[in-house]
Specification:
2 copies of one chain form a homodimer.
Chain A: H1 7-16, E1 20-25, E2 31-36, E3 39-41, E4 44-48, H2 55-67, E5 70-77, E6 86-96, H3 102-114, H4 116-120, E7 127-139
Antiparallel strand pairs in A: 1-2, 1-5, 3-4, 4-7, 5-6, 6-7
């Protein structure tokens, strides 16, 4: 087994990441991948559809998780010095947060706190909640 | 439909990317994600298991594609200026390249040409070939 990060360090690096990649399952069983912005609160990653031009496209992930809630999220650190490489993965279940709920308002507020870009244009679309069930990581052995 | 890149530009950006993310399907049907280095030749992305400490872990992807060859690959460009964001996705089928075949030797040579890091420590493990079937992309509208 390759070395991983400690549980605390894993969460620190995950929470600090500006972008992650989300894998969902398409209706035909094939994997689907998109980059996304998120905020970590406890064991939950929140993300939102952020702009109108992407709304149609982004909704694919909501359709997918309705049929198959299992998702995988990856944050990886790239460096040309491969001794600096690391990644964090969260496998869990995703669901749309109820529209206009307290949880949705809190998630949007947390996203605006993390991303200045959201402050001038708050995300309008649905909010996705991914509850982490399995946390894994890898760090290069220097 | 959000704007995408032209077919040539999509390939140029994909080929130049230093790292991508690979989504495969686990035996239980859930998605699995790892970052990986690759080289693009025609419609095929080649990657290799690059170091002994990762060998066991990396083999998961080979087991996965043997049972379910459909994979998704994502290259995304991050910027704090969201008008600069873009991504390229390749959906296709993956298979292990025959060991000690001409194709395997060519793939390893191409990987060593793209990544100086491989030149001092050539990848030893199996080589994965992902044949792209659906090419998609997204660019932020400025």
């Amino acid at each position: 087994m390759a070395p991983g990060l400690g549980a605390d360090e894993l969460r620190v690096r995950l929470a600090a990441a500006r972008v992650a990649r989300l894998a969902t399952i398409r209706p035909d069983g094939a994997p689907h991948l998109v980059p996304f912005c998120f905020v970590l609160e406890g064991d939950v990653l929140y993300s939102a559809v952020d702009s109108k031009p992407k709304r149609q496209r982004s909704l694919a992930r909501f359709r997918h998780v309705e049929a198959e809630p299992r998702v995988s999220v990856l944050v990886d650190h790239w460096s040309e010095d491969w001794a600096q490489l690391w990644w964090v993965r969260v496998d869990g279940r995703a669901a749309e947060v109820a529209h206009e709920s307290e949880e949705e308002r809190r998630a949007v507020a947390l996203l605006m706190q993390k991303y200045a870009q959201y402050r001038s244009a708050p995300p309008e679309g649905p909010v996705l909640a991914i509850t982490g069930e399995r946390w894994s990581s890898w760090v290069a052995s220097a």
